Amino acid sequence: MQGSSFALLFFGVVSIFILGTAQGSTLSGVCDQGWLRFGDYCYLYTTDIMVDFYEARGYCKGEGADLVSIHSQEEQTFLYDNHYPGYTYWVGYTDLASEGNFIWTDGTQNTYTNWAPDEPDNAGGEDCAYMDPGFYGPGGNWNDVPCSKPYLIICKKRITPSSCDDKPCQNGGVCESVSNGGYQCKCKGGYSGKNCQIDYYCESDWYHSGDFCYLFRDEFKYFNDRQTWDGAETKCQSYGGNLVSIHSKEENDFIFDHMGYSKGRFYIGFTDRVTEGTFEWSDGTKADFVNWHPRLPDNNGNEDYAFINPEFYGSLWADAYGGAHYGYVCKKPASLCQPKTCQNGATCIDLVVDYQCNCLDGFEGKNCETNIDDCAEQPCLNGGACVDLVNGYRCDCLDGFEGKDCEINTDDCALITCKSGRVCVDGINSYCCLPQS
Fold it and tell me: Which InterPro entries match (predicted)?
């Protein structure tokens, strides 16, 4: 059995990578390591465990599954195609509860059978079914046998739904399931964040990639803006960045692509002027990627600064003196604060992974887009109509009332002189001259 166990184990591992598919799937989850996928279900073949029907079901239960149930010719074909030739497997079909009435142990309905000819025959108390991979002809026909027989096992369980099924990725991001049941979003250019919800902004003339903005100054196109290495670094700092640092082939390719077919030279932020032979990025980031020309750097004439010359070196780097006037590439973090992100005069604060709008008095909301309803508490009295203003309100009073909240009954007697012997009595937008008592 040891030799056959090794062969079975080898076959089982190969099948995981070759035959596991998501045919007919409506869910985007993933199966556990070692399980095969078909449709919305995962299947596990044992390779060296041969037990009776009851132990087989207990084994599957321990895996959070049940013995396999089969409901279509496509599923049957998938199971047969993945079996190890010459071995039989328990399936979860039994008439133990009622002789002659086979049911699936996982409680699913009978929608398909694949019995061998003249089976089931219940010859000698045969109450459990197995899949025979060839004895009764091709295709893995079923046969009923005593439940005490030892066979290999096929377990089946519904795939764990992926968080991608809820379509969490925004702004055109592509969702990918990961093995722990979570997900990751691959964001389109200009977006970032777990769900690609962060919309980055680069100013005019700057190009966006990932979390950064890049400015390209060709020494011929921008002749009057040519700089020494130090001058270029100062320029980039004035824009809120530094000479570009490069940390991957993808970033290097992006930079080279945006240099186009320039014949100019572009300074980048790589220098060994602090310690000869030890190049560092001027923005202080880790030197975790280099793309030097094979024969460079050579420090010929105190060449302590790196540049890219698309015409002669393509995307490869070379070292230079640094006092020559070349073009340059700046790099700075992309901003979450777009020109119209915060509304109504609010100030935008870039928090790297989000932004915050500091609203002027009278406004609220994520983007300060909402004028606070100063009439919400109904401040106007005596039937006055409230008119909402910015950070305030106005009460339009009914005749006879005045004051900020129409709280004052206008003194209609103020300018009235009653005839002798009479006194003025104020009403609401009226008065009376009554005899003195």
Answer: C-type_lectin-like, C-type_lectin-like/link_sf, C-type_lectin/snaclec_domain, C-type_lectin_CS, CD209-like_CTLD, CTDL_fold, EGF, EGF-like_Ca-bd_dom
Tokens of 396: 């339009």
Report d(CA 227, CA 229) in Å as an integer.
6
**Both tokens of residue 311?**
């015409």
Question: Of 340 and 227, which is predicted with more confidence?
Answer: 227
Percent of the chain with pLDDT over 70: 92
State the number of CA atoms in the 13 A half-sphere of 416 facing the CB. Answer: 18
Single out the residue of 306, 330, 326 nearest to residue 318, CA to CA.
306
DSSP helix/strand/coil, 77: helix
Q: Are strands 142-145 and 128-131 parallel, antiparallel or unpaired?
A: antiparallel
Cβ atoms 168, 28 nearer than 8 A: no
> What pLDDT score does 177 carry?
79
Alpha-carbon distance of 395 to 379, in angstroms, equals 8
Tokens of 13: 């591992």
Cα 129 from Cα 162, distance rounded (Å)? 33
Whole-number Å distance between alpha carbons of 315 and 298: 18
Q: Which pairing describes strands 327-333 and 266-271: parallel, antiparallel, or unpaired?
A: parallel
pLDDT digits 0-9 by tens, 227-277: 999 999 999 999 999 999 999 999 999 999 999 877 889 999 999 999 999
Classify burial at 377, counting beta carbons within 10 Å of its beta carbon; exposed 0-12, middle 13-18, buried 19 or more: exposed
Query: Residue 164: which of 153, 179, 176 has the closest Cα?
Result: 176
Rg (CA), the chain: 40
Distance from C-alpha of 58 to C-alpha of 67, rounded to nearest angstrom: 9
Q: Which of the 8 DSSP states describes residue 163?
A: G
Residue 297: cis peptide before it, omega within 30 degrees of 0: yes
pLDDT greater than 70 at residue 364: yes
Which is nearest to 269 in space by CA: 232, 220, 315? Answer: 232
pLDDT tier for residue 29 given thresholds of 50, 70 and 90 = low
Q: Retrieve residue 19's tokens.
A: 């035959």
User: Using CA atoms in the order 221, 223, 224, 230, what is the torsion angle rounded to 10 degrees?
Assistant: 110
The confidence band for 85, taking pLDDT boundaries of 50, 70 and 90, is: confident
Identify whether the C-beta of residue 200 lies closer than 8 Å to the C-beta of residue 211. Answer: yes
* Secondary structure letter of residue 413 according to DSSP: T
- pLDDT tops 60 at residue 115: yes
Say which residue the tokens 């980055």 belong to. Answer: 200
CB atoms within 10 A of CB 423: 12
